[in-house]
Amino acid sequence: MSTEMNRKTPPILGSHVGMSGREMMIGSVKEAVSYNADTFMLYTGAPQNTKRKDISALNIAPAWEYMRANGIHDFVVHAPYIINLANTVNPSTYEIAVEFLALEIERTIAMGSHILILHPGAHVGAGTEAGIDRIAQGLNEVLTGTQDCYIALETMAGKGSEIGRSFEELAAIYDKVTHSEKLRVCMDTCHLNDAGYDIVNDFDGVIDHFDQLIGKSQIALFHINDSKNERGAGKDRHANIGEGTIGTEALRYIVHHPDFIQLPKILETPYIPSLTDPDKKVPPYKAEIALLRNPGLQR
Questions:
Q1: Which 3 state secondary structure label does DSSP give 131?
Q2: CA dihedral in degrees (218, 95, 158, 39; nearest 10)?
Q3: What span, in angstroms and rounded, lies between the C-alpha atoms of 141 and 15?
Q4: In this structure, are residues 210 and 176 in contact, taking their beta carbons and an 8 Å threshold?
Q5: What is the DSSP string of 262-275?
Q6: What's the rounded Cα separation, in Å, for the pair 108 and 95?
């Protein structure tokens, strides 16, 4: 693999940040700034439930003022894990997913983001084809074609009955969605590796395959994560940068790739033990952003 970097245009790097308490979104921005980030990703509430504060309580305007003052121009939102559009077994699960996804689109737009990342869903035993049909049905219910927001379908690792473990499955969703112009893709490096794609030795070949099926212009952002698993394991276990089977060099290659230099790259790596208190876990993002941003740094 070539290690040549695009040094003229720096990559856009950030991480998952929290949003809670009184500060809400402005607290998210402050956290991102503390990591020297150019962007960030947040959930509008806990990813495991549908409890959400009113939009008026999110401190959106002061958050944007703080973003502009610190050179951050955009951010992305991740939909909660509990949204499962692929469920054909339990109608109420599907109905809740559709209703809540519509609300998440509204919240994403109100907060000033244009990208809502979505795990496509799991068919829970009904089969991939049935799951894909159900996902497309749900997206057709919520996408009007006029919303100022894209749904970015995330590439999945392939654990359980997840849909989105292959580019072919994502392409099948695109083919069945009426307003597919409102779809995009979020490439997760750990998930790609665990799904069997050789992003370490042949990232450009992987992208060429995606380009033939969907089009690389449809990639909206990357999740940058190392993996604890060998390629094709289908397990989805994120590792810190340089501490997994993908490695720093391969991830730097992706982060600095000239075709995607303007796209957000978001870290979702695990918290690490504190140097001062081994019983405490702390975010690794400031150091990992610096590591990926600067080719001369070593872990």
A1: helix
A2: 50
A3: 31
A4: no
A5: TSEEEE-PPPEE-S
A6: 20
Amino acid at 262: Q
Per-residue tokens: 150: 């894209």
Which amino acid is located at 294 in the chain? N
Mean pLDDT of the region 28-43: 98
pLDDT at 8: 73
**Whole-angstrom Cα distance, residue 72 to residue 76?**
12
Characterize the bridge pairing of strands 226-227 and 238-239: antiparallel
Please give the single-letter amino acid code of residue 178.
T
pLDDT value of residue 3: 44
More confident of the two residues 245 and 82: 245
Q: What is the pLDDT of residues 167-210, one digit of tens each?
A: 999 999 999 999 999 999 999 999 999 999 999 999 999 999 99
Band of pLDDT at residue 273, cut at 50, 70 and 90: very high
Cα 3 to chain centroid distance, Å, stands at 25
Question: What's the rounded Cα separation, in Å, for the pair 167 and 163?
Answer: 10
Where do the DSSP E strands lie in 201-244? 219-224, 226-227, 238-239
